[in-house]
Amino acid sequence: MPFMHESSEALTYIDPPPTSTSLAQIDALIAAELASTDTNTLHPSIPTLTSPSFTSLQSQHERLAAGETLSSSRPAGTGIDTSLFDLLDIPDEFEEPAQPLSTEEESQELSSRKTAFLNQTTDYTLRAAPLHTYLLTRQTTLSLLSTPPFGKNPWLVANHALEAQVKATEAAVSEMKRETEEVERRRRELQEEARPELEELEGAWRRGVRRGVEVEVAAEGVRGEILGMRRRGAV
């Protein structure tokens, strides 16, 4: 059950829009009534927002939002980087020298070659996982095209059924839109028809309030005169 209920009593087609001064006064009154906890503390019915734990996926979204790509050869904003599914060049096997190295320069060169080989192997391993999944899924999908009941004809029948559902949904949306427009038109007509009566009632209410105030003022004047006469009589 919602803890807040929206209620609108404004006649949108008759009432004039509020002025900026009126809106400022309303905002000031609301701010004066609100406690500090009302804007800083969540309502008990609102669940606490949990922090996401999919940091890798979030980083990918941030990368796409920033217009960056994993491959420098692809333009930004083109979606999935298909180079992840390209065939890989398997790195050659690293061979240790048969004889121990005699100089320090040869040792440093061997260490650099080994580091480069490890980096290449790591990159190959990371790219091999999505490539294997992609190729396996593609092989399964292609094999289903020739396997009953997942062949071409059932696929076309399913597409035809989905197309019929889409058309029915579009027709329902169009009908709902037409009904909404009809309700709005009827609402406008009713408010326009009631405008003279509402204006007359508002004018009568204003005149009644003004006369009531005038009567109260006159009564206070008479009361003051009576008190004055009593004071003069007492003297």
TrEMBL record:
It comes from the Eukaryota. It comes from Aulographum hederae CBS 113979. It is found in: Nucleus. Keywords: Coiled coil, mRNA processing, mRNA splicing, Nucleus, Spliceosome. It holds the Pfam family BCAS2. InterPro entries: SPF27. Signal peptide: none annotated. Residues 159-193 form a coiled coil. The lineage of its organism: Eukaryota, Fungi, Dikarya, Ascomycota, Pezizomycotina. This is Breast carcinoma amplified sequence 2.
